[in-house]
Amino acid sequence: MNKLVPVLPLLLVLLAFSACRKTPSWVIPQDKIEDVLIDIHIAEGIIDNQSGEFPDYESKQELFNAVYKKHGITKQDFDTSLVWYAAHLKDFLKIYEDIDKRMLILRDTVEQRLTALSELEAKGINIWQGSTVAVISSFAHNNIFTFQNDSLLSAGGAYRLKFSLLGVDSALHTECRFCIEAKDTILVKKILPEKNGDYSLDLTLADHEIPKILSGSVYIDPLQVSDVSLIIANISLCKYKEASALSLENPGESANKVILDDITVIKK
């Protein structure tokens, strides 16, 4: 008669083997899930600080989905892995110990950058992204210069669009516009230059307004004259932390010598 293998010793061997096995292949590796969790916590912070931009579950989930996509995983991959790590407390605590250290470093880095940004904004940061020179003409197909800058800037602040014009005369109808679009407000400033020179258009946002799009244009009426070119040079777009900083900057000799200089506020 064959002897029976003792059940208890076999179970102990199996349990010991199970405790020593590696993380299953379907679980996100520890170093990667740390990266995912850090981005998830950053996304949660964005939602808390900008609640108006994420009014419902769908908009919040869209941000989290962007995190999953960044790391090449799905929500199911993340949730399943998190359940596994939660059942293995030692691994789970190690993950959050590493995350705490990394978040402290990240916080210090962000604070240093924000301090540097604040100091720069006080002096004015040039956020212009395109060429600093453009040429338009009185021909209908080339009579307007436009720009659009999708903004990732902080709330509030003052903005100055500066440029020089060469080719303006009394017969040339020239119109310059500067626009800032925020969540609830659109600010528009327009000038009609009469002569060559340096010009600036200033706009100031309320402290709670976050700029989304900065745009502008320089336009020649093609019906006024024929075969005329206008050079737009030295283009810059600066952000200042405080509107008072604009008065410290020279707006340009010709800035006040215009036919029209108004600001239109449009409430959405």
How does this structure look, described?
With 268 residues, the protein is α+β, with helices and mostly antiparallel strands. 35% of the residues lie in helices and 31% in strands. The protein contains five helices and ten strands; from the N terminus they run αααααββββββββββ. The strands form two sheets. Strands 1, 2, 4, 7 and 9 form a five-stranded antiparallel β-sheet that branches. A five-stranded antiparallel β-sheet has the order 3-8-5-6-10, with no helix packed on it. β5 and β6 form a beta hairpin. α2 runs antiparallel to α3 and α2 crosses α5. The N and C termini lie far apart (90 Å). The N terminus is likely disordered.
Q: Strands, helices and their partners?
A:
Blueprint lengths: L6 H14 L9 H20 L7 H14 L4 H12 L2 H35 L1 E2 L7 E4 L6 E7 L6 E10 L7 E9 L2 E9 L3 E9 L5 E10 L8 E12 L17 E10 L1
Antiparallel strand pairs: 1-9, 2-9, 3-8, 4-7, 4-9, 5-6, 5-8, 6-10
Helix pairs in contact: 2-3, 2-5
